[in-house]
Automatic annotation (TrEMBL), chains A, B:
Belongs to the PurS family. Part of the phosphoribosylformylglycinamidine synthase complex involved in the purines biosynthetic pathway. Catalyzes the ATP-dependent conversion of formylglycinamide ribonucleotide (FGAR) and glutamine to yield formylglycinamidine ribonucleotide (FGAM) and glutamate. The FGAM synthase complex is composed of three subunits. PurQ produces an ammonia molecule by converting glutamine to glutamate. PurL transfers the ammonia molecule to FGAR to form FGAM in an ATP-dependent manner. This is Phosphoribosylformylglycinamidine synthase subunit PurS. It is found in: Cytoplasm. Pfam families: PurS. InterPro entries: PurS, PurS-like_sf. SUPFAM superfamilies: PurS-like (SSF82697). It comes from the Bacteria.
Length: 76, 76
C-alpha cells in the first residue's frame, strides 16, 4: 500500500522559499500571484495493513517538525 | 483561487533524500517501509480565472525541472 504525506509550514511561519518563488514568478511575467507556500510531499511504500496511526507516528517522530509544520496523511 | 502543484522526481531518478528518510524510519523501528520518494508541493494563491494552462507554464518555466521531475496540477 501507499501513503502520501503533505508537510506544510504552519500559517504565520515565514516561508522564504515560497516568497522567493512568488518573486521569481512575478519576474517571469506571471501577474496576480498573491502568495506562494512551499512544502514537502513524501510518498511512502508501506507494508499492507499499515494504519494511519502508524503513519501519524512517523510524521510526529521524523517527517514533520510539528513546532512549525503541519502534516496531512492520505492513504492511497 | 488556489492551485496546488506536486513536483516529484521521475521514476528512475535517484532520490537520496527519500532514501535517507527510508533509512531513518527503519532506524526508528518502523518496519516494512519498502520505499520513500520525496517531492515538493507548492500552493499558489492566484488571481481568479487563472487557467490550468497558465499554471502549467509556471511549472515548465520555474517550478519543476522537467528533465528529472514530473509535476501534477490541482486547481482548488
Amino acid at each position: 500500500m501507499k501513503a502520501r504525506v503533505h508537510v506544510m509550514l504552519k500559517d504565520g511561519v515565514l516561508d522564504p522559499q515560497g516568497e522567493a518563488v512568488r518573486h521569481a514568478l512575478g519576474s517571469l511575467g506571471f501577474d496576480g500571484v498573491a502568495g506562494v507556500r512551499q512544502g514537502k510531499v513524501i510518498e511512502l511504500e508501506l507494508a499492507e495493513g499499515t494504519t494511519e496511526a502508524t503513519v501519524g507516528e512517523m510524521c510526529e517522530k521524523l517527517l514533520a517538525n510539528t513546532v512549525i509544520e503541519s502534516y496531512r496523511i492520505e492513504l492511497l
